[in-house]
Structure formats: structure tokens, C-alpha cells
Amino acid sequence: MATEPEPQGPARRTPPAQASRSAEPSSALRTAPGPPADRTVPAASRGLPTRSGDSTPDWLEPAMAANGIGSFDWDIRRDVLEGDHRACVILGLDAKRLDRSSAAFLAMLHPEDAPVVRRRVERAVAELGQCGAYYRTVFPGGELHAARFRGRVLADAFGRPSRMVGFVWDATVELHKRERAGELAALREERSRFIKEAARALSEAVTVRDVARVFTELPLPGLPPDGLLLASLEAGRLQILGASGYTPEAIRPYDRSLLGPAHPAAEAIRNRAPVFIASRDEYLDRYPEAWTRISPSNPRSAWAFLPLVASGRAIGVCAVAFDDDRELDTDERTLLSTLGGLVAQSLARARLHDAEHELAAGLQRVMLPRTVPSISGVTTAVRYLAAGSGLQIGGDWYDVVPLPGGHVGLVIGDVQGHDVHAAGIMGQLRIALRAYAAEGHPPAAVMARASRFLADLDTDHFATCTYAEVNVDYGVVYAVRAGHLDPVVRRADGSATPVPVAGGLPLGVDPDEEYRVTRFSLDPGEAVVLCTDGLVEARGMDLDTGFARLCATVSGDLPARGESPYDPLDVLADRIASQAADSTEREDDIALLLLRWDGPAGGLAAQQLRRRIGQADLARISELRGELRDALRRWGVAELVDTAELLASELVTNAIRHTDRDAMFTARLYRESAGQGEPAGRARLRVEVEDESDLWPTRRTPGEQASSGRGLMLVEALADGWGVEPRGTGKRMWFELSADSNGVDPTES
Question: Strand locations in 543-623, DSSP E?
Fold first, then answer.
């Protein structure tokens, strides 16, 4: 409790001979023994009749009575406190009580104020000065009162403190004012804190649904509402966005209904000012037409209709309702008006966000394929994840294109930029590339034409892209890469590794760029994963780390077919997408395309590798040897690698050297069936090379110095069987090798 400054009484000089006696009391409320001091307090102050010739004026008593001021007299030597009737009432002293000591008086004071009063009285007694204080008194009945007093210490003939006389007046009204002021200050602080919290919560609300949720959950300080309702205004109709304290049946008649001109909400919107209604009678008197729509069972008795105005345009209204009659004061009305302004700004921003999001989502849906075609022999899965911020639209795309001859084309790409312009370019490029592929052009030609098309658009944008043509009959993939990421292949044993693909410049950079084709093969059940850089590269994660994480995700265990209601490829796609979707700070969108080669319709009896060797493409023979080595290791017959590589090179070289046409190389692995519970039988590798030449191979016996002629001798010596078969045009040379199968048949996985 705040107290007044301690008064400084007039200085009183004490003769040296009396100095020791003047400081005799050791504390303010301890008295020293001695003869009673002469009383000099006015008789009127003790409620006694005034003597003739007394210096006290006759008007003092009426003046004190009129102002509720009482007088007191404290005999310091005897420690007796006396006062007139008004003083006793103010101090809470009982005239019938014998104990009127200072200790009894201090015991009545509030614990926080007693030390202050004691300290000030002690100083006044020690200095023979004045003192005063504001203090609270706890009456015997427990009531809390407040009083103010002002007193002066008088000395006896020897200069010792003898008495304190003074005045006291009631300050209980001041106490209530202080308490009320404290309550109002606390309420204002709470309201200020509420406005800050409401502004923070509404600023974090992104969508219209978020704004409605925040508004209907706001705890209004000092005036807890019984009902809250938020509605937007669309073409003169109210759309209820959120409500609390109302049942769905109560608000359903108002949702999407016309807002009549006689409704208080209409007046608030029309005048751009809140409308406050304190009672049901006031509602009926001011808005009789709108009152007829209120159900008799409606418990509300007071309302506040707050217009939502943003940029000078009314966009809605919010209603605050109370069950009892309530006349809102100025502070409460100001609070609600401020809240309405905050809600209006947040709602306008949220509506714009929702409109932009719907525009972006619609545009993205138009740009991307609506459905992925179903092609026999392969299974595909696609995912698209918008960026975590911004307009949530970009230039990433995927496509699956059915090609002539039963093949399928896979496209994954990313146009530079992350805006509507990039999305528009992406749509044009996707359609052009799809058209080139559907016409039957080889992969390198498709990519070159797409690059020229983007350059001709003159948009100052480039695009990265990977295009892969999959031979559904044999599982062969012909891939072309234009500044994009390498594909990742999940093998039959569950491992996952990136497949290096020869790369070229991004599309649109050089219209004359020529792209190289990289060939790799898939076994039945193996899958290829294509993605854009948003999946493997982000702030705080480099490309190598992203690829390692992607390969770890792709190589994870998957449920077997039939163990889950979902296809294992969809499970894998969801797992990859969920890893990227965990980040709300993602700055780039993500396109994801997966294809699993299931084999041709009816199944495939043997694993095989099929390649066309150009007549002038001698470097292709080296690439073929590498692919054959990889295939035999995947098929579980690594012991045949050296022999098969040597003999295949001889057959292919023989076909290239002695013909002027391309050669077709085919390697197939057959497995003998075994009984139930027995390990797989022997594996048989058959390699065939077809050409269009009618020239039949001739076995020769070269001399020691001959540089050729030993090819068929090697085939005859190392192969389990070999031969030449005529075809309609040309011939087919073949050889076979056998090996024991010590592992599980990969075709059964």
C-alpha cells in the first residue's frame, strides 16, 4: 500500500542540559515513567465543553464535524490513546474497551501498513516533530477500512516527548477508489495483452478456416461472450465461416441467406460502424422486422455486431452475444471494435491466400496429366508435392507416354523458376515433348526437338529433363538426360543405386545440342525412380547427401504382393514422398515418377538382355560387354561372365565385320524346373546374334601367324553347344553355356 511521504516537523532545539532526557524513549510506542504531563489539547477535540476564554475558536468543532474529521490525544508517558467520538469511529476504537494502548491500536492495522505507521511515529517522537500516514484498518468484525491522520508531538517542561495530538479522517472511499483503479488497471493490462495475443494468432492464421477457428476460440477478457459467430458477405448473402455457442440447427437458416436491410448486421455493414444492443427489448424496439426471425428459445439477450471492413470494402460481419442484458461501457466497445478490425484484415488476407491457392492448384492440375495410362507389362506411380511456401506452383512435371510398338516413354522435368510463368512454359513444353515422343522418334531426337522448341519460344528460361523409353517386351531402357538427375534403379534384391546416364545441356540452352542415349536393362520386378531436384537437394542438404538418402529410402523393405491392399510400388512412392513432405520450409516443388517392369503379358520364361548394335558403332561392343557382365551377375550366374563375354564378343564382331547392316544381340537365361522343396536346377544361358547377311560363317584352321579365323574355334571349344540358323532374311548364330543354380531364382522374387 502506497503511503505518504514522511513529514518533517519543525526543528525543536533542546537545551544541552536536557538532551539526555529528550532522547529518553527508545521507540515511538514505548513510554518512560514520569508524572502526567499537562494537557494542552483543546477541550473541544476531546468532546468537552469549551471554557470561557479558551483560544479554540467556536467554529472549529462544526467545521470538523461537517468534514468528518476527528481529533485524538495520545499520552505517550502513560501509553493511553483517547479521541472524540468521530475519531473512535474512524480508528475503530471501542469506547467501552479498557485497552487503548498503542499496541492494541497497531494490532488493528493492516499487516502491510503497521510497520510504516510505527516507523513514522517513532521518528516524530524522537524529533519532537510531525507525522502523518495513510493506512488500512481491520475492524473487529473483519471489515477493511482506511484512514489518514496528521499529528504533532508535544514536549513537557523538561523537553521530553509527552503527548501526540492530531486529527484523523476516514479514507475508505479513497480505498475503494484505489481498489477499483487497481482492478481497472489490471483489466486494461489484460485487455492489452489480449489484443496482442489476438493480433499474433490472427496474423499466423493462413486460411479462412484458420481465421474462423482463432476467432471462435478467443477468450475475451472481462466480458466472456456466450456466443460468437463469423460470417463473410458474398453478393449480399451471408456465409457462416465459424461459430461457437450455437448449435448447427440454430445457424443453418442464416447460412447463405440474403441479409435483409432491417437486420442489425446489415446496418453495421451499411454504416461501417458497430451496432450494440443491450437487451431483447431494445432489439425488438429498434429492429422489429429482424426480431421475428429470432426463435423464442434463443437465450441471447445482448448483442454486438461488428462490421469487417478491409480496404474500404465490407467483407463480412462478426457477432458477439450474451445471455444476460449488458450495457457495454466505452472500454468494452473499443475492445470489440479493435477486435473487429483485426479479424477483418486477417480474413481479407486469408481469402486472398485461399483464392491464390485454388488458382495455383487448378493451374497445376491442368498442366499435369490428370491420369497415368495403364500399360500392360509395367506398373507406374506418380506423386507431386507443391512447395511449402509461396504460390505453390512451379515448373516441375512428369508424364507417361504410350509409344508405338507397345513401348512406354517416361518424362520428368523442371522448368527454371517457381511462378506462373514457369508453369505456363512447363505446360507448353510437356505437350510438345509428348507429341514428339508419340510420333515414334527415338529418345535422342525427342530431346533435341524439345530443346529446339523451348529455344524458339524465346522465354529466357531453360529446363532440365530426363526422357526414357522402356521396351516393355524385354525390359530395356533407353535414357537421355538434359542437365537433369540420373535415375535410380531398385534391383530385384532390394538394393538401389543411381544409373549413370550420358548428359547434355539443359533444354533451350543450345538449339543444336545433340544428346547421347544410355541403355540399361531391368529384370522383372525391378523399378526405375525419376525425380526432380527438390527431392534430393535443399538448404542444408547437398546433392550427394540427398541421393544417398533417396537410395536408402528406395532400398527399404516393401510388402510382397498380396500382403497389403496397396501395390508395393505405391507404398514405395508414398514413403519417398512422405520423407520430403515432412519439411514445411521446402522451397521447391517435387515431381516423382516410378515405373516397375513386370514383364510382358503372360510372363517371361527367361531373363534376357536384348540390344541392337549399329554397323558403324564399334564402341557399342564394349558397352554391350559391360551390360552382359552386369546382367549375368544379377541373374546369379557370375561364373559364366568371362566365357560368355568372350564368346559374345566374337559373334558380334563377326556379324559387324562381315555385313553392312545392324546386328541384334539377345541373351536369355533359362532355368530347369526342380521338384517341390528342392533347390533350383541347372541354369542355361543362350546367346544369339542376328544379322541380315546371307553369307554363312566358315570354320577355318588358321596358322600360327594368322591374325584372324579363331573365333568359331573358341566358340566350339568353350560353348556347350553352338550353331547357325537361317532366317527369312539373314541368319542367327547362337551358343549355349550351362551353370549350376546355387541361389534362389530371381524370377520367382
Answer: 590-597, 607-613
Q: Rounded to whole angstroms, what are the CA distances from 250 to 244, 253, 264?
A: 11, 7, 18
CATH number for 188-359: choose from 3.30.70.20, 3.30.450.40, 2.120.10.30, 3.30.360.10.
3.30.450.40
pLDDT tens digits, one per residue of 193-246: 888 888 888 888 888 999 999 888 887 776 788 889 999 988 888 889 999 888
Q: How far apart are CA 653 and CA 674, in angstroms?
A: 37
pTM for this prediction? 0.52
User: Does the structure show a pLDDT above 90 at 601?
Assistant: no
Structural domain boundaries in the chain? 16-170, 188-359, 373-597, 607-748
CA distances from 353 to 330, 584, 660 (A): 35, 17, 66
* Cβ–Cβ under 8 Å, residues 259 and 237: yes
Question: In the prediction, which pLDDT does 466 show?
Answer: 96
For residue 737, pLDDT over 50 is answered with yes
Using one digit for the tens of pLDDT, what is the confidence trace for 369-389?
777 888 888 999 999 887 755
Q: Which CATH superfamily is domain 16-170 in?
A: PAS domain (3.30.450.20)
Helix (H, G, I), strand (E, B) or coil at 422: helix
Q: How far apart are CA 749 and CA 745, in angstroms?
A: 7
User: Which of 533, 284, 312 is CA-nearest to residue 413?
Assistant: 533
Return the bridge partners of 490, or none.
496, 527
pLDDT greater than 50 at residue 32: no
Torsions phi, psi for 509 (to 5 deg)? -80, -50
- Whether CATH 3.30.310.80 fits 373-597: no
Neighbouring-strand partners of residue 529 = 488, 594
